[in-house]
Specification:
Structural class: alpha/beta
Helix content: 25-40%
Strand order of the largest sheet: 5-9-8-6-10
Strand content: 25-35%
Oligomer: single chain
Number of helices: 6
Length: 241
């Protein structure tokens, strides 16, 4: 087993890189792949960069050069559900592109021609491992061993596009069209690349903003905390796997 762990930004992978035993660093496609051990497991941790193209390229490199067997995407996202608050964690049941539209050619909105599906399903074993990991972290509350004082998990659809969601009109359209739980910029591309390579994947996103008009104010304040909480769950998941 070798686990590829992808974050889009430095803040999303910094803790993971700091906590792992690095055996080598490989640079490819302007990305640095940190290979080594995390909690005794073989991992490759990488910052892919922001957006769908970088994310898809990153998964393919992990498959071709490192022979990863699983892919975990960690990071932050905007909430698309009023019940999901800042600091909560969204775990993917599946992922979809909210900015793909080939409907004039007879495809459904969100469907990429030739792929065979528009909803990319996450691996259920990984989803269950995340549930276990959250329980372990929650049991440590007050011990000083966890960054998260109270973990609330939500399971559902991750909606991805090359847009930072910052207005209610766009947010409401995505919710009405896809029923998503959170919006971000890489998950569905990682999901599609994993799907095509037949590699199990899961997306874990900590909510850093509400994906509405308040985003610009909330995002800088909560980004670092949200990313750190998400990384803590990833580390515990790696231990369980």
């Amino acid at each position: 087993m070798k686990i590829g762990i992808i974050g889009a930004m430095d803040v999303e992978v910094a803790k993971l890189k700091a906590d792992m035993e690095v055996s080598r660093v490989v640079e490819k496609a302007s990305m640095e792949f940190y290979e080594g051990k995390l909690n005794g497991k073989d991992v490759v941790v990488v910052k892919c960069g922001i957006g769908k193209v970088d994310a898809g390229i990153c998964v393919q490199i992990l498959c071709d050069l490192f022979d990863v067997t699983h892919v975990i995407n960690t990071g932050v996202a905007g909430s698309l559900d009023a019940a999901i608050d800042i600091g909560d964690i969204v775990v993917s049941e599946d992922a979809v592109f909210h900015d793909v539209d080939v409907t004039p050619l007879g495809y459904e909105v969100g469907e990429m021609p030739g792929v065979g599906t528009k909803f990319f399903p996450a691996d259920q074993t990984l989803v269950e491992d995340i549930k276990k990991a959250a329980e372990v972290i929650s049991s440590k509350v007050g011990s000083g061993d966890t960054v998260a004082d109270n973990i609330t998990l939500h399971f559902g659809r991750v909606c991805s596009g090359d847009q930072f969601l910052a207005d209610d009109q766009k947010k409401n359209w995505i919710v009405d069209t896809f029923g998503g739980k959170c919006g971000e910029m890489e998950g569905a591309a990682i999901a599609q690349a994993a799907y095509l390579n037949k590699i199990p994947f899961v997306i874990i996103r900590a909510i850093s903003d509400k994906a509405d008009g308040s985003s610009s104010m909330e995002y800088p304040e909560f980004e670092k905390r949200a990313a750190k909480d998400c990384a803590a769950i990833v580390e515990e998941v790696v231990t369980i796997m």
